[in-house]
Amino acid sequence: MQYLFVRIVKARGLPPNESAYVKVRTSNHFVRSKPAVNRPGEPTDSPEWNQVFALGHNRTDSAASGATLEISAWDASSESFLGGVCFDLSEVPVRDPPDSPLAPQWYRLEGSAADQNSGRVSGDIQLSVWIGTQVDEAFPEAWSSEAPHVAHTRSKVYQSPKLWYLRVTVLEAQDLHIAPNLPPLTAPEVRVKAQLGFQSARTRRGSMNNHSGSFHWHEDMIFVAGEPLEDCLMLMVEDRTSKEPMVLGHAMIPVSSIEQRIDERFVPSKWHALEGEGGGGGGGGPYCGRISLRLCLEGGYHVLEEAAHVCSDFRPTAKQLWKPPIGVLELGILGARGLLPMKAKNGGKGSTDAYCVAKYGKKWVRTRTITDSFDPRWHEQYTWQVYDPCTVLTVGVFDNWRMFSDVSDDRPDTRIGKIRIRVSTLESNKVYTNSYPLLVLLPSGLKKMGEIEVAVRFACPSLLPDVCSAYGQPLLPRMHYIRPLGVAQQDALRGAATKMVAAWLARAEPPLGPEVVRYMLDADSHSWSMRKSKANWYRIVGVLAWAVGLAKWLDNIRRWRNPVTTVLVHILYLVLVWYPDLVVPTAFLYVVMIGVWYYRFRPKIPAGMDIRLSQAETVDPDELDEEFDTIPSSRRPEVIRARYDRLRILAVRVQTILGDFAAQGERIQALVSWRDPRATKLFITICLVITIVLYVVPAKMVAVALGFYYLRHPMFRDTMPTATLSFFRRLPSLSDRLI
């Protein structure tokens, strides 16, 4: 898209005025600059603006109609004309990057003959005019005719804060002032509480050494710390023996003073003095004991702020451990079509002010906002360095509410929809241009909000060794496997990291709202949903479908549904039995043939959101209402009781399936456990007979006999269950011993 760029720098020699401003007028646009600024020590007739305007431009129409650009200076107090300059748009130069920026030039301010003779018009103005596109480096800071609310609608690039895991190991505490009036044979319950910002954790009960009176814990607590590491870690030793906990002492430790490490090397512990009430952490309070801590900032971990299945980056915090990039991901956000009205303006007229947010790795990008358009066109391009191909790019579309002054500050931007593109599904150096539906799940059901059109390319050498070797490397950094974190602990740390990223981006200008960040990071992906449970169940069924299909195919073979196929299987089986060295190569050749066959059905474009896979087409309204319910629930007691009963019915089915699985395993154990003496005797006798037969008869003959017996014709087959299956079902399990 072409724009007419006008850069107003400053003026000199203007007539006396109080506050000068500049008007820019074309046949389609009229804009007004901000008030001028006079630098200290500079003459008052030399104001400065340093402002850029980007006006939508159609070069063909302008050249045909002889359109002009008028730039004039005015006095804000009296609205008197101070002079102007006129340009023929057909003569304005076109700038294509990487051309250097156009240097501003001085132009003489002109007016009518009467104005110049009277001295009301004089002076010069420094400006530059050119035609460019949104790729121009001046575009992000320019006032755009399609997005006049500059504070909230510029294209911006954001960076997530650098996050660290702070490991706090509480070892020992000494010289604590324990209350002397404890009941007999009562050990004090002393715990340590650590707090970093909004995060807090508490140790278990400490073990007391009766000889020295010290307490021992040897317990780890992990927090998320974000640069610039301005917070302080607060530790409080609490006596929770009585109902009312009593603080025995506290210590304040600046996070910036804590040692950083990038591997598993040993970090020595240090003693920290505990202060009583009235101490601010600087040594002003009374001495209340001391505590031994081992503190370190872990740079060898990757701090997860996204859901693991849609993560866009797996690099550790420490930059020294980063590997070189393997390629570049290029994204072109072209536009959207058919967006639904998101707000009402000007007496109830529907309107949408859409902008896009894309996130990959630590880099966030935000397009400009196209005001009052259901078919916005952005045509903006962004790039990211790719360090791991098995990552996901997320692109979301939102409706801008914060750009309006009459809307309260706490009104969040409304989500329109998002798409995800996995980088590993993109072929190297191929441009994919496609439209994806924007889908949002609302309490009323699934709703299509429109479509977004994007172009994406993964630029890298096709057979680069680093790209191929990445598939054989661990997904997470080394420290995740040497000292792994628990699942529940990772979920808690991920929630803290998401909150810190949202707070960081909310302080930017223009701000990226917390609701936008949480939606892009999938912060609510671990909430309970009956719909997601059904979707996961059908995913498991789909994974096992190949095994079910193979079993059906074998059943058709052994039932002689197609005699020709069954005879061919007999021949193939004989060849494999007689030449067992061909079994493994044949299996791998079969896998290769399957892969080649499915090449015809490979996806031609990266897949978007799948409605059918998400079970969002025919979701029950009550289940959807439960999915959007808060924790704790805000629904009526009778609704909660009905949902609890439904959950119990579902749990009974799961309980029954788990019991059946356990029973089958216990029957296998019962073969040799002598719980059923007769069954164990029979099993051992049969095993002895099989052993003798296998010693006497060649293995190939046994394999041929078993295979032909399994594939025998139905006329030689009994419809009743086999003796082996009946014997197994009669084995005892532990189900009869359950209370």
From TrEMBL:
InterPro entries in the record: C2_dom, C2_domain_sf, C2B_MCTP_PRT_plant, C2C_MCTP_PRT_plant, C2D_MCTP_PRT_plant, MCTP_C, QUIRKY-like
Residue ranges of domain C2 in the record: 1-107, 144-272, 310-436
Keyword set, alphabetical order: Calcium, Membrane, Metal-binding, Repeat, Transmembrane, Transmembrane helix
Membrane topology qualifier: Multi-pass membrane protein
Signal peptide annotation: none
Compartment annotation: Membrane
UniProt main location, coarse: membrane
Gene3D superfamilies assigned to the protein according to its UniProt record, in alphabetical order: C2 domain
Protein name: C2 domain-containing protein
Gene Ontology CC annotations of this record: membrane
A Pfam family annotated for this UniProt entry: C2
Residues spanning the membrane: 566-599, 682-711
Family membership: Belongs to the MCTP family.
Molecular function per GO: metal ion binding
